[in-house]
Write a structure and sequence with these properties.
Layout (H helix, E strand, L loop, with lengths): L10 H19 L6 H8 L3 H7 L3 H23 L5 H11 L5 H16 L4 H28 L8 H21 L6 H13 L4
Helix pairs in contact: 1-2, 1-4, 1-6, 4-5, 4-7, 5-7, 5-9, 7-8, 8-9
Length: 200
């Protein structure tokens, strides 16, 4: 901290720090219980510090959501480079699922935003973008796998991706509610069953 009470470091790094604290508060209290005061307390700063980086609560919450998804997209793009293509699809799905401490925190935050999306166009658009980004990346992976001969050419790629995405979304919710039943191993088995059907 500086003597003026503002976090030291560059602008974007500090906004990212605020975002991280916001995720933790949302995960514990939900969006309804998240306030500038609670986020500031989580960081050990005053609300005035947050106002230095964000105009208000809604801008901060939207930024935190976008930051979470941007990090997810970066992981998706890295996973898409895995060879063969079937393993890339497995990795994409597992990255999107809650199967460790960090991903469970992110899913808790994601579900909070999802519950508000019907009433908040900004959240709705970010969630639509999340779905679209995963679909586009998976489409490229499947096309490359078909070109290389590791994935069947006799499949409807859109239907396969829809099956993977719907499985991920359903598994994600169930894994948050009953993690002992839907462990990382069980998640992997279910995703593997889908991918094996389209591998040569």
């Amino acid at each position: 901290m500086t003597k003026q009470g503002r976090p030291s470091g560059d602008w974007e790094a500090q906004r990212a720090r605020v975002s991280d604290a916001t995720w933790r508060v949302i995960a514990e209290h939900g969006l309804e219980g998240t306030s500038m005061r609670a986020i500031a307390a989580e960081m050990g700063v005053t609300t005035g510090v947050l106002s230095h980086y964000f105009r208000g609560k809604q801008q901060l919450l939207h930024f935190a959501m976008k930051s979470m998804f941007d990090a997810l997209y970066a992981s998706f793009r890295k996973a898409a480079e895995i060879k063969p293509a079937g393993d890339a699809l497995r990795s994409l799905a597992m990255i999107a699922l809650p199967n460790d401490g960090q991903s469970r925190l992110e899913w808790s935050v994601y579900l909070s935003y999802l519950s508000q999306a019907p009433r908040n166009p900004d959240y709705e658009q970010e969630i639509i973008q999340r779905t679209s980004t995963l679909k586009n990346i998976a489409s490229r992976v499947i096309a490359q796998g078909q070109k290389e001969g590791t994935l069947s050419s006799n499949i409807d790629a859109d239907k396969v991706i829809d099956e993977i995405q719907s499985t991920v979304e359903g598994l994600g919710v169930l894994s948050m509610v009953t993690p002992e039943r839907f462990s990382r191993r069980r998640q992997s088995e279910m995703i593997d069953a889908i991918v094996k059907r389209i591998e040569n």
